[in-house]
Amino acid sequence: MANLSLCAVLLLVVVLFTSGCSTKISDVNTPATHSPETRTPPVSGGKGDSVNEETSDDGSFKRALAAVEVVEIRRKESFPGQITLVVEGTLPTPCHQLRTKVHPPGEKNEINVEVYSLVDPAMICAQVLAPFEEQFELGSYPAGGYTVVVNGQERGRFEIH
Q1: Model pTM?
Q2: Sequence spans of domains, the chain
Q3: In 10 A of CB 73, how many CB atoms?
Q4: Which of 28, 45, 61, 113 could be bridged to 118 by S-S, CB 3.0 to 4.6 A?
């Protein structure tokens, strides 16, 4: 009988000490659809849009540049010449949503491309890098030489004849 009482007291002590380390039951049982952690930036998908192109509904999310490691410029054999950009890199966490924005060429025929991510600042996420590979159309351009600048760095050139 004394062993049973000792076990009960020890169990009570362990429960009391570990209860401060747990999450509130109401937080665990809250449906995910009502939790702010489940919000994701809206994605456009209209004709001609990159699946991850910037949308006007992205305003409440935090923006960060993506770490771009590889940029490949591909030219399709078509008339007019179609240019595709393949970008590889990493996002700060798996919760970041990749976005791209392609600016039309300026006076110096530079095509500026922004590759960045959006994340809900209230979202709880694993702190690990998330690799990505994205392919999207830059479009077609008139004859001339063009420079591709990604996140402020010149990443390649191409010619349209």
Answers
A1: 0.63
A2: 32-160
A3: 16
A4: 61
